[in-house]
Write a structure and sequence with these properties.
The chain is built from 23 helices and 17 strands. By secondary structure, the chain is α/β, with parallel strands linked by helices.
Length: about 575
């Protein structure tokens, strides 16, 4: 490395390097000794990984390096790619055929997924429409068969992960027994880097943040296989992300167990962000099914047969000879270690999605509470709980609120967050339960955000509920977005994407006035209450708003001109 005499102080160079991208930082790090020292903390501050193939070898190498491991402050779990299951050849073929005009889409969604990522090819290598059309039906069937082989091979790698799982004891450096001792022969033939994963995480003594980034929500997920591009529309139309949720839940369960085990020694983890979908690891039986390597197919099938989550849980336990009391206790201890990852947190972003028609949310509420109650140091919390679609709760009064209601009731009884200052909620509940829960946080809660919260029928109206909430709390900030109740059948308020705001560009001018009027009224408790229905608010507001009136008149003029033009064209 060449010597370098900088003309700027180290602090200035550090600020400059902080503003560069990862590729530039790597180049600077290799340029000379001076920039090596400055760039290294930035290069290794965040490490992205996945528990598949060699997706975490980079993490292991960093953890074993005495200097580099000290720079790691944030881990990001994110799978780099996946293949979706189509119902048959015709669905797969249609998903390819409909996408020839979109091969210019960017791969930017995955540019930063992992240092070990590789693409199956570049955009220049995409098969042309002419080439695809020239293939015979037999050749296309052969490609589909190969696609299925690759997809099933990827699924098999998920089971391979479970072959290396060991039971752990909190506070003990030595692992105990294999979760699946019958698979010892398989384990012995493999280089089990996964066995080192817990120790690697524990060696990251300055780790403060963990983020689970579910990549299957990105538009590019599952759209590339070899030289073929699969239409995102086809992915949405013909597939679901149940299997993706299960695979992510398996990887997340193991990482949470590692974080909880390491947290006993390091006590530095302060921020956690995660999305958990499907049956996942909510309870000992679900964790056992997940770690068995069948993902959660069995649990989903039992739900379909029983039409009830509770009956499915019972069948999963009593209908399996492996469901002994000892095995259950061992999995409960692993859950306890996973929960230990929450003990020293000050920030939590937790989104939990489950089916809402078979009692699954109620079944999940208890185990989820056990995780949340461990966060006694939490100061900032975002909690989304319900049947989430693409990670968001959709407004609608027909959704059951039993599961979220049970969760909030348990949190109300135990008051596990004595230091909380900021809270964001996204769920379905009723006025009594919501106000009761929030009232227990009154001594410290200063910022409240209600986003996509629905009040169930006969569960109150937002006019009354917001007055109750603000009256019970001492808020400095109140944020409201997409609130739903059963007024007039079903009413959605404070939705910036509603049709009423999209007409004549009202969103850019009057939505801010509407939102400010509502929030300011409920925070201050003085003045005249604004109309919560957007259309009614606009009728009352436009005569008083110069910009809104000008936009409205301009839109009317444009509409009239367009109408006259159509009449003239007909004549």
């Amino acid at each position: 490395m060449e010597c370098y005499s900088p003309s700027l102080p180290v602090e200035i160079w550090d600020m400059i390097v902080n503003e560069t991208n990862q590729a530039t930082r790597k180049q600077l790090r290799l340029s000379n000794k001076y920039f090596y020292r400055i760039s290294s903390p930035h290069c290794f501050k965040t490490v992205r990984f996945e528990l598949a193939e060699d997706g975490f070898n980079n993490l292991l190498d960093i953890a074993l390096h005495e200097e580099l491991r000290k720079h790691v402050k944030k881990l990001v779990l994110r799978r780099s790619r996946g293949l979706r299951a189509f119902g048959d050849f015709e669905e797969w073929e249609d998903s390819i055929s409909r996408n020839w005009d979109s091969d210019s889409d960017s791969d930017s969604d995955f540019d930063s997924a992992s240092d070990t990522d590789g693409e199956d090819g570049n955009d220049d290598d995409i098969m042309s429409q002419q080439h695809w059309s020239a293939l015979s039906i037999n050749e296309k069937h052969a490609l589909y068969d190969e696609y299925e082989v690759d997809r099933l091979k990827a699924r098999a790698q998920v089971r391979n992960l479970t072959n290396h799982l060991y039971f752990r004891t909190l506070g003990c450096r030595q692992e105990t027994d294999l979760v699946h001792p019958a698979r010892t022969a398989v384990v012995a033939t493999l280089d089990s880097a996964l066995k080192q994963f817990d120790d690697a995480v524990a060696r990251l003594t300055n780790l403060t943040t963990f983020v689970h980034d579910p990549a299957f929500f990105y538009s590019r997920w599952g759209t590339r296989w070899r030289r073929l591009r699969i239409s995102p529309d086809g992915i949405i139309l013909y597939t679901d992300y149940d299997e993706d949720e299960d695979v992510d839940a398996l990887q997340l369960s193991y990482v949470l167990r590692s974080l909880g085990w390491a947290n006993y020694f390091n006590r530095n983890l302060r921020s956690l962000s995660l999305y958990v979908g499907g049956p996942a690891f909510w309870g000992a039986e679900r964790l056992r099914r997940l770690w068995d390597g069948h993902e959660d197919e069995t649990m989903r099938s039992l739900r379909y047969l029983n039409r009830s989550a509770a009956e499915a849980e019972e069948d999963a336990y009593f209908g399996d000879n492996g469901g002994t009391r000892l095995l259950r206790e061992r999995h409960l201890r692993q859950l306890f270690i996973m929960e230990h990852a929450f003990v020293y947190l000050t920030h939590l972003d937790c989104a939990v999605s489950e089916d809402d028609e078979d009692g699954s949310l109620v079944t999940t509420a208890g185990p989820l509470f056990e995780f949340l109650r461990r966060g006694e140091s939490l100061e900032r919390v975002r909690l989304a709980f319900g049947r989430l679609v693409d990670s968001f709760l959709q407004p609608g009064v027909n959704q059951p609120g039993d599961g979220p209601g049970e969760l909030l009731a348990q949190l109300t009884r135990h008051v596990p967050w004595p230091r909380i200052r900021e809270l964001e909620l996204e769920l379905v509940t009723d006025e009594r339960i919501l106000v009761g829960f929030l009232s227990t946080l009154a001594p410290t809660l200063r910022r409240l955000a209600l986003s996509r919260v629905t009040l169930v029928p006969s569960g109150g109206t937002w006019e009354f509920t917001l007055r109750q909430i603000v009256g019970a709390l001492q808020l400095d900030s109140l944020e409201l977005l997409v609130l739903c109740d059963s007024t007039m059948g079903e009413r959605v308020i404070l939705d910036p994407e509603a049709q009423v705001w999209r007409s004549w560009d009202a969103k850019s001018v009057c939505y801010g006035h509407y939102k400010s009027a509502v929030v300011n009224y409920f925070l201050s408790g003085t003045g005249k209450q604004p109309l919560l229905e957007p259309a009614a608010f606009l009728r009352d507001h436009i005569p008083k708003c110069e910009r809104g009136k000008a936009n409205f008149l301009q839109a009317q003029s444009a509409h009239l001109a367009s109408k006259n033009k159509r009449i003239m064209d007909v004549k």
